[in-house]
From TrEMBL:
CDD domains, per the entry: ABC_MJ0796_LolCDE_FtsE
Origin superkingdom: Bacteria
GO CC annotation, single: plasma membrane
Keyword set includes Hydrolase: no
UniProt-recorded name of the protein: Abc transporter
One GO molecular-function entry: ATP binding
Organism encoding this protein: Actinomyces glycerinitolerans
């Protein structure tokens, strides 16, 4: 997507659905069966920044993996950008994930033997048609945007947790995905670094219209989002929408968490 096209997608009203789950269930295992997601329906509009919260084991990561097409559903329908991952061949699904989606994981998932710059460039390296000079330029621009331009030559063990998480975000956004999925992206960070990460997501969302789903246990992290979906026992329990005041929203989120559990880790 060009810069102009990205700017044009910015909207504060939920646009057409970028993700829709209809009556989705996921059962793990054959002999011991665990119903992780139970008849869950959820719609995320284009340009939304949404948090998913809920007690441990409520199915949050499973939902994210179903959206990503990493896991197949047991029943129900998932659509991402109008596509049902189940209709794609394995190869098509891999290309879809690589070009249209970005992932950020709690444990960063960076490659230790590569530098920060090489880690950020990885998605471009997989995309055959990129010149090395362009990849270096793009990765430097993304790193600078994320405030880690000075550690590009460092290896993963030579940067802080917050810098590693920013590198993981850089890798997730370098190819201009339409949908960013993050599972506990602030779980391993102190509160200052966690706020920085959410500021980055918020900025990408507002300035570039990147639709974003953030799974988190942390009410402060969730308070950066405009909507919080609470999941309990594999189904949507309730939702909150933010007005203007982030601190008031934080209090509202804490109140729901008290009700359903899932506060803290
Ligand atoms: N690969 C798997 N095989 C079997 N059961 C699984 C598997 N992955 C998850 N589960 C089970 O499915 C349920 C939902 O798990 P999931 O990881 O989605 O929860 P979560 O909400 O992300 O929890 P947490 O907050 O602890 O990360 C849990 O009961 C979990 O034990
Ligand atoms: Mg999880």
């Amino acid at each position: 997507m060009t810069e102009t096209a990205m700017r044009n997608t910015v909207t504060h009203e939920p646009g057409p659905a970028v993700v829709s789950l209809e009556g989705v269930s996921k059962i793990y295992g054959d002999t011991v069966r665990v119903k992780a997601v139970n008849q869950l329906s959820l719609r995320i509009g284009a340009g939304e920044l949404v948090a998913i919260m809920g007690p441990s084991g409520s199915g949050k990561s499973t939902v994210l993996n179903l959206v990503a097409g990493i896991l197949p559903v047991t029943s129900g329908t998932v659509r991402v950008g109008g596509q049902n991952p189940a209709d794609l061949s394995e190869e098509e699904a891999a290309v879809f994930r690589r070009t249209r989606l970005g992932f950020v994981f709690q444990d960063f998932n960076l490659v230790d033997t590569l530098t920060i710059q090489e880690n950020i460039m990885l998605p471009l390296m997989l995309a055959a048609n990129e010149s090395p000079a362009r990849m270096r330029r793009r990765s430097r621009a993304v790193a600078e945007q994320l405030g880690i331009g000075d550690v590009l030559a460092h290896r993963v063990h030579e940067v802080s947790g917050g810098q590693a998480q920013r590198a993981a975000i850089g890798r997730a956004i370098i190819h201009g995905p339409q949908l960013l999925l993050a599972d506990e992206p602030t779980g391993n960070l102190d509160s200052a670094a966690a706020q920085d990460v959410m500021r980055i997501f918020s900025d990408l969302n507002e300035r570039r219209g990147v639709s974003t789903i953030v799974v988190t246990h942390d009410a402060r992290t969730a308070s950066w989002c405009k909507r919080v979906v609470f999941i309990k026992d594999g189904a949507v329990h309730s939702e909150l929408y933010r007005e203007d005041d982030r601190l008031a929203f934080y209090d509202e989120i804490l109140n729901v968490l008290k009700l359903i559990g899932g506060e803290g880790r």
